[in-house]
Amino acid sequence: MIRVLIADDENLVRSALAQMLDLEDDIEVVAEAADGAAALASARATSPDVAVLDLQMPGRDGIEVARALAEEVPGCASMVVTSHGRPGLLQRALKVGVAAFLPKTTSAETLARVVRIVHGSGRYVDPELAAEAMAAGDSPLTPREADVLEAAEGGAPVEAIAREVSLSQRTVRNYLSSASAKLGVGNRHEAIARARQMGWI
Fold this sequence. Notes:
Radius of gyration: 18 Å
Number of helices: 10
Number of strands: 6
Strand content: 5-15%
Oligomer: single chain
Distance between the termini: 37 Å
Largest sheet: 6 strands, parallel
Order of helices and strands: EHEHEHEHEHEHHHHH
Helix content: 40-55%
Strand order of the largest sheet: 2-1-3-4-5-6
Shape: elongated
């Protein structure tokens, strides 16, 4: 029996996923969670074989939860199910060891098949998402530029951003300028929107 944890902040989606998987003879949903912290707590308590994680959840997102699970519950493989299949997110997920990445439009049959693949130490990436990620290429941003853009996302002034990322105001301005140039946009607001759209921050 494959023991599964499902984490999704949308109750209807989480319940639907659980019901679909519970129909399978060889799969048992042992825990459900509505956010990243609850997912980690449930995984520690139940030691599931596979965690089916929503990408965007309150607190820690699915990629952060997958990274933590790899360290804290190493017997649990992670897969991400998302309605936000942006190229950079797929690349980030694969880097932290997520074994499968698929859209929420996936059929119940495919979902169950992928749970079995992941449980058997295999990997699966939705073909369309994989093609989009390859076409988009790698992020042009350095890790520091990405950090600065993330810190700037709420419209914070340069002084506040500099404090948050432990850099000088001049360096922050340089990073915002270089990130905008690399992304082909005119200002930091457009740079943030573009990087977020691509999943690079």
